[in-house]
Amino acid sequence: MVSIDSLTERDREEWEGLTRRFHAHWAGRPGRPATEVDDEGYERTWRRLVDGEEIRGICARRDGEMVGIAHYLFHAAVWGAGRCYLAELFVEPRARRRGIATEMIRWVARDAERHGTPRLYWNTEIDAEARSLYDRVAVFQGYILYNYSRAATTATT
């Protein structure tokens, strides 16, 4: 049985272990810098998550074990209601393809609705394995994501 809920103080140790595995999962992939977070960075992010003001976090448990995490935030929009950005979603590889990520996305969507930010969005790599899930639960809008870096822009001028 799977349960999903907001992160609480008692989740700290399991959350960090799962988050470190999430970072390791993405480290070294082509075009992706390794995500190196020191202990202080994990502590700072944890405080922000459980305070629930800037960013929010949820976890999925299967038979009592944490197998998934999601981090998200609400923000204003220039036109219309605010938005909810799903910044990170990770399910342990051994727990995938059991509907856990789908339920986590739906949980975040309901929380967004409750907070007056009905539009939920996220980004992913074009060839991400998870796109088969995303294409079932959402609509690909065709946007391309750019990340501005001062070093990148000054190198080309």
Automatic annotation (TrEMBL):
Record Pfam families: Acetyltransf_1
This protein's record includes keyword Acyltransferase: yes
Molecular function as annotated in GO: acyltransferase activity, transferring groups other than amino-acyl groups
Signal peptide limits: none
SUPFAM superfamilies attached to this UniProt entry: Acyl-CoA N-acyltransferases (Nat)
Domain N-acetyltransferase: 2-157
Keyword Acyltransferase: yes
Keyword annotations: Acyltransferase, Transferase
Cited PANTHER family: AMINOALKYLPHOSPHONATE N-ACETYLTRANSFERASE-RELATED-RELATED (PTHR43877)
Protein name: GNAT family N-acetyltransferase
Organism: Micromonospora wenchangensis
